[in-house]
User: Fold this.
Amino acid sequence: MFEEKMVVDILSDTSEELKIKGNNGVEYVYYPPLFRTMYVRVVTIQHVYSQSDCNITSIYGESENKGELSELSCYLAGVVELEDLSIALMGDPDSSTRRLSLILRPIDNNFDKSKKFMALEADQSVSTSHVFLGFNRRDWEIGNTDEWYLECYLPKASFDAISAAISSKTLSSMNIGIKLKNIYIDCCSWEPVSESANWFLRPNKEDGTIDQPESAYGEVSGLNFRLLNMSLSNKIEIDYLGKLDEPDINPIPDLDRRLEALIFYFSRLERILKWIGGAIALCFILITFKYVF
Assistant:
């Protein structure tokens, strides 16, 4: 079963704005985010290890390195949430979302050549961070669903610091700021950045469809992550990103707990003695009254 491609009617396409006509006949205008940074908040994150077959087919059609696996690689995967309103495809309001899949990788010798080429096209040096934001359309043959993704390549020192914080379960919060190109917003480029905006990917430049829309690219402009402020006296284990685990150690020291128990028992004993004393006094009065009268 093949799905019909969705074509967007582009009315004008300049460096200052992009205007389209929606399926409802209404015209929509989008603007490049000249001074705006996209901020995302990390919701979940974890380590992912992968290893694949590194068989290489030579020009003679023979497989080299047969049976060998590539080196074990590690990256971070999770979910991020936009701090702005939403992100969607132009002409497809049903694609609107605030959450994207996140992939963080270190920049090293295995950096993909195609991504390196795109980074150079964006006038960035290979040693800096790189970001790619895109949309994968569902495919009935593969069985996948529509997915927004954000792929970030960080300097190895930054990646290692985040990785260590996750391993030690001390990562409390994490925010990423990214400067993107080939992406649009629904408010004027000169509006204050404090105003919230919706973000949009443009249709494919070749056929105007949003079956495979254009991707955005750029760099990380800000990275902020905090570690837990641990109390040395109360050792409560706290999971990364602020999720509490069941504490293995009672936060109340043993001495304080024993003192509280002792005070409780003395208070109960005091009440019992009062009842006993009152009963004895009542019996004494009754006996005296009997013998006197």
Remarks:
- Helices lie at 113-121, 156-167, 254-292.
- DSSP finds three helices and 16 strands in the chain.
- Confidence is low (pLDDT under 50) at residues 56-63, 236-240, 242-253.
- Residues 244 and 285 are 62 Å apart (CA to CA).
